[in-house]
Amino acid sequence: MSALIAIRGLRKIYQMGDESVHALAGVHLDFNKGEFVAILGPSGSGKSTLMHILGFMDTPTEGSIVFEGQEVAGLSADRRAWYRSNRVGFVFQSFNLLPRLTVLENVALPLLYREDSKPEANEAAAKVALERVGMSHRLDHRPSQLSGGERQRVAIARAIVGMPAIIFADEPTGNLDVKNVSRILELLASLIKEGITVVLVTHDLAVADHAHRIISMREGSVQEDRQR
Fold it and tell me: Hey, is 191 helix, strand or coil?
């Protein structure tokens, strides 16, 4: 089976004054369709850098990234933006919902940046996504009117509204209580059955235990990659 994403020799070097910081030190990994992968590691291990590069928010200093059969490591800013709008979704610890927009407007927002964007179609797609996460009863609410768990479910709806191939979730349960952590992890796991790949970045072993595969990182390198 060919990988959804195959990365080889991935390096990221940041220049901090006279010092070179090696955030990624030659990473080799494959991510397959429908996998639930957790990436573990302490602060500074490179896990968030890896996610940002694979999510087309940053570019590597060196190395190859093949995404759905295409080399994407050296894409222009415009092409990276296309991939962010059409092939990947993001879920963050702080939700990143716009406070002045309604739930429906927040979820439809990523679709506005597509070339074929149409208001009626965008609204319909957003309603379907919100139904999938159990938030169709909150369409006209603002984020401030929702609980933390509800806001994260809305954020997941926003991540899946464009039917991405992969979702990157960066500490998505970090601001939630135990009950809502369980709900969010169950929701992410349900996306796997639809063929969506989920890559969960976390420092919490209990959260990582819900994944099918755990990758441990330290000092920019993969220390362990194991199936569960």
Answer: helix
Alpha carbon distance 156, 133 (integer Å): 8
Helices (H), the chain: 47-54, 77-86, 103-108, 119-132, 148-160, 178-192, 205-208
Q: What is the mean pLDDT of residues 102-119?
A: 89
Q: Residue 61 pLDDT more than 90?
A: yes
Number of other residues whose CB lies within 10 A of the CB of residue 153: 25
Pairing of β 166-170 and β 197-202: parallel
Average pLDDT over residues 205-215: 93
CB proximity list for 120: less than 8 A, separation 6 or greater: none
pLDDT band at 114 (very low <50, low <70, confident <90, very high): confident
- What does pTM read for this prediction? 0.89
Domain ranges across the chain:
5-227
Give me 100's structure tokens: 């002045």
Mean pLDDT of the chain: 92
Please, what CATH class does the domain formed by 5-227 belong to? alpha beta
* CA-wise closest residue to 223 among 9, 10, 22, 25: 25
Rounded Cα distance, 53 and 79, in Å: 14
- How many angstroms separate the first and last alpha carbons of the chain? 19
pLDDT at 1: 55
Residues in the chain: 228
Distance of CA 69 to the CA centre of its chain: 20
Rg of the Cα atoms in the chain: 17
The residue-averaged pLDDT of 21-29 equals 94
